[in-house]
Amino acid sequence: MPGKHSDASPLHCTLSVMPATHSNAASGNSSSTSSVYSTRLTARLAATAQQNAADTSHGSEPLPANAKQTMCSKIHRHIRSRIGTLCLLLATVVVGLTTAHSYFHGQSDTPNCGMSYSRPRYIEQTEFGRSWTRYSAKYKLYLYREGGFDVHDQPFRIPVLFVPGNAGSHKQVRSIAAASSSAFVKMVGESPHLVDEGCVGYDFFTVGLNEELTALHGYSILEQADFVNDAIRYILSLYPKTRAKHQLSQTKMALPTSVVVVGHSMGGVVARTAFTLPNHIVGSIHAIFTLSTPHNNPTASLERHVEDVYNTINQFWRRGFRNGTLDDVSLVSIAGGNLDSMINSDYAFVGDLAPSRNALSVLSSGINDVWLSLDHQSILWCAQMAHKFSAMMVRIMDARQPTQLVPLDERMAVMRELLYPSIDGEVSEGVMDKPMGSESYRYVRLADNDEVKLHPVDVRALADYSQTRSRKARALHLLPLHKEGGYNGQVVQVLYDPQLFADQPFDASQTNVQLALLSCNRNSTHNIADADVNVLCTTLSIPKVTKLPLKRDGDDPNLPVHSLHYIEYPLSLDQYEYVGIEVPAKPGIQGFLQASLTDQPQATEKTIGNTQLLVQPLTIVPDQKLGVRSRIKLNVPEDPFIVYRTKLVLRRNPATALSQEAKFGPVVRQSDGRRFESKFWYDQRTLDLAIHGRGAYLPTDSEPSNKTVS
Question: Which residue out of 220, 258, 265, 671 is catalytically annotated?
Answer without folding.
Answer: 265
